[in-house]
Amino acid sequence: xxxxxxxxxxxxxxxxxGLPKGQHNERSALCLLALLNLTPDKDWSQAENPLLGxxxxxxxxxxxxxKRYAPNSRETFRRFTMHQFxxxxxxxxxxxxxxxxxxxxxAVYQIESTTLxxxxxxxxxxxxxxxxxxxxxxxxxxxxxxxxxxxxxxPVQIKDxxxxxxxxxxxxxxxxxxxxxxxxxxxxxxxxxxxxxxGDKWGYFDKELLIRLGVNVDAHGKMPDVLFxxxxxxxxxxxxxxxxxGPVDAKRHNELSALFANSLAGLVYVTAFPxxxxxxxxxxxxxxxxxVWSADSPSHLIHFNGKRFLGPY
Length: 313
Known about the structure:
Layout: H1 6-16, H2 26-35, H3 54-65, H4 74-87, E1 91-93, E2 109-111, H5 113-119, H6 127-150, E3 154-159, E4 162-166, H7 170-186, E5 191-195, E6 204-205, H8 207-212, E7 226-230, E8 235-241, H9 250-259, E9 266-273, H10 276-280, E10 291-294, E11 302-303
Parallel strand pairs: 8-9, 9-10
Antiparallel strand pairs: 1-2, 3-4, 5-6, 5-7, 7-8, 10-11
């Protein structure tokens, strides 16, 4: 008889694999089952490893196990289950296209092949020995995967001896151009304080410098994509990189003004676009008294009203 109580079995399997207690829940069990395409009528030896995104995983859970989740649960699945699966080396992220952007809607996950072979023996007489062998090598698997992913990240030199690696994608390419081309032209000699990353919010952060300038933000502060301090003029340049959404519109201007309200330096708001054609789609949204820079015309700056050009108000 084929066992159908796979959710409870998946929970035991996750515990055996050493996943943290935060992943010992029904959501994580269903993610595992979906990534194995282990429907209730299948045995563990029949596990597969299809490529699946977050929404297909949720749809699969509803179809085969009648577990329905609201569409706004996608971020919970990604942040509190799939992220940990990837970190543990249990699952691969975008194995079909390693340079796919982190926030791409086409992002997919797949059970790692060695892990799949192990899972196919779950419940068999060889499980204990196979698990012990797998766990003894699991750190190596995780390290190899992390090293492979680092090779396709975008290197950005932020100091003479410091390089940060940003997740691949157009957004990170634009951030690199902001640092390499915008800052030297319009804020020469400025100090980089913060660089965001789609895969890791705090890609680089000189928190001590920002505190000296009167601003202390916590992990929940909605930082701009790039932050510079131009000491020559005592300016903080708040730069938003826009490849698909998010210019400095009136709402974002108010958010940043509130976040940096205690700044001892004047605030300069900048929206950066990869091309003028992308800029054209957002012209009606950009807030007044802000600056716009386009990477395809790096020596020019577009000024949106106000009594002076680049500078705080």
